[in-house]
């Protein structure tokens, strides 16, 4: 196993790595909607937050040698399911015809008062 981080994604907000590589499987830690340069939330809007989570996750996948087309699963955590349709629209536009397995869970709260957080699993082979 190898632990890895990306300079193109926001620094971890806790004691963890951006990702772990297990053989040819990349497990990406939950990504918050933070701008990697400022470490500030990109917006209060859930759809904009979803876009940033996807960008941050993809940066980590790419820096580990993967591609968007090799993302196998995405875990989506939201604090308000009334935002689901808008988040889903952003997600669908981002992935296009590629449709990774997905989990979407409503949670009571997320770190830094985010409305969305996403984790990723990608194949690096």
UniProtKB/TrEMBL annotation:
Keyword NAD: no
GO CC field: cytosol
Keyword set, alphabetical order: Plasmid
Highest rank taxon of the organism: Bacteria
InterPro entries: RidA, RutC-like_sf, YjgF/YER057c/UK114
One GO MF term attached to the UniProt entry: deaminase activity
Family classification: Belongs to the RutC family.
Official protein name in the record: Endoribonuclease L-PSP
Species the sequence originates in: Vibrio coralliilyticus
Lineage of origin: Bacteria, Pseudomonadati, Pseudomonadota, Gammaproteobacteria, Vibrionales
């Amino acid at each position: 196993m190898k632990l890895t981080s990306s300079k193109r994604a926001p620094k971890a907000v806790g004691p963890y790595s951006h990702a772990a590589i297990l053989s040819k499987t990349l497990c990406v830690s939950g990504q918050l909607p933070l701008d990697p340069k400022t470490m500030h939330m990109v917006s209060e809007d859930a759809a904009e937050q979803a876009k940033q989570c996807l960008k941050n996750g993809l940066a980590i996948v790419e820096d580990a040698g993967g591609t968007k087309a090799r993302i196998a699963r995405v875990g989506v955590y939201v604090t308000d399911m009334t935002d689901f349709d808008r988040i889903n629209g952003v997600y669908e536009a981002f992935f296009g015809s590629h449709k990774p397995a997905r989990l979407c869970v409503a949670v009571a709260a997320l770190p830094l008062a985010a409305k969305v957080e996403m984790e990723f699993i990608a194949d690096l082979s």
